[in-house]
Amino acid sequence: MRDTLATKENTALKVLLIEDDQSLVHELRQELVGLDAGIEAVIAKSKSTGISAIQNDEFDIIICDFRIPPHDGGVDANEEHGIAVHLVARNLCPGTPCLLFTAHATLENVSNLLSSGGTQDIFGTGNLYEMTKLLKKDHFLSCIELLERFNSELRELETIRIDYSGDTNTLDKMERRALRLLARPLEGTSIEAEALSGLSGARTLKAIVKNNKGHVVASQFVKIAERAKLKRELENYDLHVVPLLKLGRFPALGRRIIAGIGKREALIYQLADDYTLTLFDVLSESDCRAAAVVSKLQDILNPWLDSSEESQLGLVDLLARHFDEKDMRSMLDSYWPLEALEEVKQKVTCCCQHGDLHGFNVLCNESGGAVVIDFGNVGFAPACLDPVVLELSILFHRDSPFRKSSWPTIEQTEAWFDIDEYVRDCPCPNFVKKCREWAIETGGTLDLPLVVFSHALRQLKYPNTDHERALGIARAAKRQFT
Asked: For the segment 8-64, what is each residue's pLDDT rounded down to a tens digit?
């Protein structure tokens, strides 16, 4: 059981209080009501409800008594339950400060807990705060001063203006916080943020930071997600991007924001100021310029091809990258028996691939330069995957300028491997041909059908893609290997 107290409808500071002593909870309520400080307090009375709150919500600060019962209404309060809550908090949201009250905890337990959190800059000021702080139980209400100070810092942070343009999914509280935390150390007073759409569950943005004179002080690519998702991106960046691709062909990782934004983390990549266009922007203006960018991309990513090797892959192996077995059977059996697809196996040229190379993951400047962003899906895959994903993104990505075009007809999708027929009446034939040339050069004509088939069927996962076009392309691919 938990309840919520908000002193204002639009709150700045959200606090989780885990305390079974209702007299102390009542005192805290009275103090917060009198503050008019915009502080929201979520109350949990035991280990189980405290852990549930941490798992299902995000907080700016967690306040926990060491001695709490395991369940609401329990009488067997013990410090081991408070320690268990703290360990969950440190694991799920290590960037959230924890304030612990104790009258009974052993010195050894206290010492271990205090050393577990370290210090972090929570508000972008350069001042470091202890992520685990201990207070004596008889000084319980002294936490009010800390809450006031934290709330004041957050309100100051919120004076940084955000001008947001992009998709209809507006920025949430922690995403706005992350943008302001990247701007504050740069003495930025405003941020122009544009969504870079993706399907990974992460928030990706272009952010331009300006000072109080309106001058640009930084141009950055920002990725915000729960830290478990960004862990893979960091590993990919260190293993496959920095050591293998040439400098200047990808943005440099500048900062990580790991505190002050709940369970999330933000990766801040530095961009040259003139990389203001996405490849989709270029494509909507000039087919020829977009085709030239494809050539540039092939050159950027060619170092990955140097370590290519042949691997025995089955068609179902490729589909399993997008579907679990249950979804694969329920979604695909109505079109092709899964047992028949399991028989399709061949040697495929594989190497490191970006894995999500759509038009929003390529940033361009007016002079034809390009950089690749977003490395969460980088990994070993068929060598023709990136050009196939890039080509098909003009049909299936929700922000493609040609997604609602009358081209291609269903008949043309069925003729996908007849390039001349396929690009008839195409609004960007040079772009499509250049992607196709790249795919054949890297993967060959034998690898292409398997990759095209699996990526086309991947579109069936998404309710807003054109399933008929996807199935037409899949049918064209299947005819190549049966």
From this structure: 335 578 999 999 988 888 888 777 776 656 788 899 999 999 999 999 999 999 999
How far is the C-alpha of 131 from the C-alpha of 20, rounded, in Å?
23
Cα-based torsion angle of the residue sequence 463, 466, 469, 473 in order, rounded to the nearest 10 degrees:
-50
Sheet holding 277-278, edge to edge: 277-278, 362-364, 370-372
Q: Is 186 exposed, middle or buried (CB count within 10 Å of its CB: 0-12, 13-18, 19+)? A: middle
Q: What is the pLDDT of residue 13?
A: 86
Alpha carbon distance 266, 226 (integer Å): 9
Give the C-alpha separation, 471 to 413, whole Å: 8
C-beta separation of 44 from 50 below 8 A:
yes
359 within 8 A of 374, measured Cβ to Cβ: no
| Long-range interactions of 71-79: CB distance < 8 A, separation 24+ | 71/46, 71/47, 72/1, 72/20, 72/45, 72/46, 72/48, 73/45, 73/46, 74/20, 74/46, 77/20, 79/104, 79/105, 79/106, 79/109
From the number of C-beta atoms within 10 Å of its C-beta (0-12, 13-18, 19+), residue 36 rates as exposed
C-alpha torsion 39→42→47→52, nearest 10: -120
Rounded to two decimals, the pTM is 0.86
Alpha carbons 288 and 22: distance in angstroms, whole number: 70
The Cα diameter of the chain in Å comes to 80
Q: What angle do CA 425, 428, 430 make, to 5 degrees?
A: 110
Tokens linked to 350: 């594989």
- Domains (ranges, CATH) in the chain? 2-155 (3.40.50.2300), 159-270 (3.30.200), 277-481 (3.90.1200.10)
Examine the pLDDT at 101 and tell me if it is beyond 50.
yes
The sign of the CA dihedral 135, 140, 145, 148 is positive
Q: Which residues, other chains included, contact 247 with Cβ-Cβ below 8 Å and sequence gap of 6+?
A: none
